[in-house]
Amino acid sequence: MGNSTSMFSVTTPFDQLGVDSLQAITLVDVLSRQLENELPVDIIYKYSTIETLSHELQERAKLANSTSIASPGNYILDICTGMPKVYHSVNDRSLSALLQFITHKKSQLLNELTEYGALLFRHFDVITANHFAQVAQALAITHKSFLDYKDGISKRTHVMSNVFTSTEYPKHVEMALHNEMSYATEMPSQIFFFAEIPPAPGCGGETPIGDSREIYRSIDRKIRNAFANRKILYVHNMPNLGQGLGKSWQDTYRTESRKEVEEFLCSRHIEFSWQPDGSLRTIRSMEAVKRHPLTGDWLWCNHAHLFHPSDLQPELRRTLESRLTPVNMPKNCFFADNGEVIPDNYLTHVRHVLQAHQTKWSWERGDVLLLDNYRVAHGRAAFSGERRILVAMC
């Protein structure tokens, strides 16, 4: 790598130097502060080499010495950078300005969400969980209500209303790309993230994202067809509170009432059974590939790689499988047509494809990220230090 980076010149385009879209935004911010002059963010796309950008900045400096340059009149600057598409404050970074912008441009924003799959709102005064909830409510699809994460498999802390922490896995654990609650009979259409406490630079903790359409196209055809034709049978065993491995059924359904749990499961046609030890088992057959509800695109959209025992650390897997039958594992999945075990090598291939299609970018304090939960999968990088990302979904 040392040789390749040493051969660049001032005429080498920024993208060939490995400068991604968010790094470009940061560069323009730094230049704006150094020059004490607000630069348009798309300047780095118009003048895409060190040589041309340097020349343009020199010309702007000459102009600034002779005439005043009016600052942009718009408080929102739209930056098209692929995925995610970034909206960046220019003049007014207040919460009220952001909410007003969303109200006026909601139809456009939802169309862009369908086109790009991910929208990032950066450098606004979104500071608290309440602020985040207001932004999410403003952006939400009108006819959709926010979900309370009942039936969710991951441990989260309820913060307020329908705002939760992101998955509370140990810091050292990487989470592969997935579409939130793809195993659920009522899968969220949108998922919102808020960087209340972003990880420090260089400490990991990114939320990588990936295009579910491209993932679908990249899965080996034989494996993809097996999943598409045979579907997935998800088995989830939830212990009684404090009595076993994994998230309890009380935490999963946010109640201590068996009757309420049964009503919830019956309303969603989820098969269930109470076990002699007080634990709850749910079984459901779900599609492994889905069509996007708006575009009709085929998507790789399932949790097989996260339910399957191959997701466990090898030693933990050996221990559990020596003591438990497959159906008694905390989580497991099978082919739904006949209950056959899904081969490990199928999931190894899937994970390789997911890894190859993820895009990483760094959180900044106050960032709000909106994902089309069908179109875009997300994950979590391992991290050190503090990190608190909040989520909402509808």
Automatic annotation (TrEMBL):
Q: Which Gene Ontology molecular function entries are recorded, alphabetically?
A: oxidoreductase activity
The protein's superkingdom reads: Eukaryota
One BP annotation, GO: antibiotic biosynthetic process
What high-level taxonomic lineage is stated for the organism? Eukaryota, Metazoa, Spiralia, Gnathifera, Rotifera
The protein in question is named: Carrier domain-containing protein
What keywords are assigned to this protein?
Antibiotic biosynthesis, Oxidoreductase
The protein's matches in InterPro entries, at most eight in alphabetical order, are given as: ACP-like_sf (IPR036736), AlphaKG_dependent_hydroxylases (IPR050411), PP-bd_ACP (IPR009081), TauD-like_sf (IPR042098), TauD/TfdA-like (IPR003819)
All copies of domain Carrier, residue ranges: 1-61
Keyword flag rRNA-binding: no
